[in-house]
Write a structure and sequence with these properties.
This protein has helices at residues 4-16, 19-26, 30-44, 60-86, 100-107, 125-133, 174-182, 185-193, 204-215, 230-237, 252-256, 285-298, and strands spanning 49-51, 56-58, 93-98, 117-122, 139-142, 153-168, 197-200, 225-227, 243-247, 260-264, 271-279. By secondary structure, the protein is an alpha/beta fold. The strands form 2 sheets. Strands 3, 4, 5, 6, 7, 8, 9, 10 and 11 form a 9-stranded mixed β-sheet that branches. It has a two-stranded antiparallel sheet with strand order 1-2. InterPro entries: LysR_HTH_N, LysR_subst-bd, WH-like_DNA-bd_sf, WH_DNA-bd_sf.
């Protein structure tokens, strides 16, 4: 008999592209994910993925199988979430999604004070909003507002994040500051390109946008180090050498303690509006307000 978890595993590998990312999404070990996939392939008698060194590429059979099962799996996930909520009346549970850096900075220090259960999910904003629309998540913190007709999701703006240029405190920024002060953007751009740069895979959009809005062109170089998240960037720059473009609220503490330096806020403010995206049919509104209050108190 087929194990339903094999199909869940297959879905995550298909959507994430690698065994590593699928194991993270499933909160499982990579060997366990491989075992599930091998068992499913043996059961259906077909190869579902081409294995490469970097990615799992679906075969035609894999694509057909995904199309057959995806809607049923989505309905099952929604049913599980609703069933879980109705059987835990005495202990409310809130499912939230955001970037990992925001969770670590804003929510993590407050968890022990919460009087309800909390399930946090990290990922791309588009994926989190999709889970919100499907009823899997109750709240998403996002800089992107989607306008969908007949949606049960409402967007409430609560703060702004500004993208700023920071440097490790061992970085020589004398020439950079000179060009900023003289407003010589051509020389400033040339000088910036000479430095070591850090970025993260989920923040390259910020990097390109800041560059275009301040220099009226796309960056002609790529960062030297592309790390998993902004927290890693800040740790690398801490008392070190290099430049990065990051949201200001994620590095305020390190700037105040002189572990990194705020170099430039840009001639044009590169900002994102942050939204509370939540379902209008949410049962636990009191718990939702608690999470919202934590954010608004820390991100004034």
């Amino acid at each position: 008999m087929v194990n339903l978890e094999w199909y869940r595993t297959f879905k995550e590998i298909y959507e994430n592209g690698t065994l590593t990312k699928a194991s993270i999404a499933l909160y499982a070990s990579q060997p366990g994910v491989s075992v599930h996939l091998n068992a499913l392939e043996a059961y259906v008698g077909k190869k579902l993925f081409e294995r490469t060194s970097r990615k799992m590429i679906p075969t035609e059979d894999g694509k057909f199988l995904y199309e057959y099962i995806i809607e049923s799996l989505k309905k099952l996930e929604i049913a599980e979430q609703h069933f879980k909520k109705t059987t835990q009346e005495k202990n409310p549970s809130l499912n939230i999604g955001m970037c990992s850096e925001m969770f670590q900075l804003i929510i993590e220090p407050e968890i022990r004070k919460l009087d309800f259960d909390l399930v946090a999910r990290f990922g791309a904003h588009t994926d989190l909003i999709k889970d919100l629309n499907n009823g899997i998540l109750d709240l998403v913190i996002t800089p992107k507002k989607q306008n969908e007709k007949k949606s049960l999701v409402e967007y409430i703006p609560f703060s702004k994040e500004r993208i700023v240029l920071i440097a490790g405190n061992k970085t020589n920024v004398t020439k950079i500051q000179k060009h900023i002060k003289s407003k010589n953007l051509s020389k400033l751009e040339d000088e910036l390109r000479q430095n070591v740069w850090y970025s993260s895979s989920n923040e390259m959009e910020h990097f390109r946008r800041f560059w275009f809005e301040n220099f009226n062109k796309k960056p002609t170089f790529k960062p030297n180090y592309i790390l998993p998240n902004i927290t890693s960037i800040i740790r690398c720059l801490n008392n070190g050498n290099g430049l990065a473009l990051v949201p200001d609220f994620l590095c305020q503490e390190q700037i105040l303690s002189n572990e990194i330096n705020l170099v430039w806020e840009g001639k044009v403010e590169t900002e994102n509006t942050l939204y509370f995206a939540s379902r209008t049919d949410l049962k636990y509104k009191k718990e939702l307000d608690t999470i919202k209050n934590i954010f608004t108190s820390k991100m004034k």
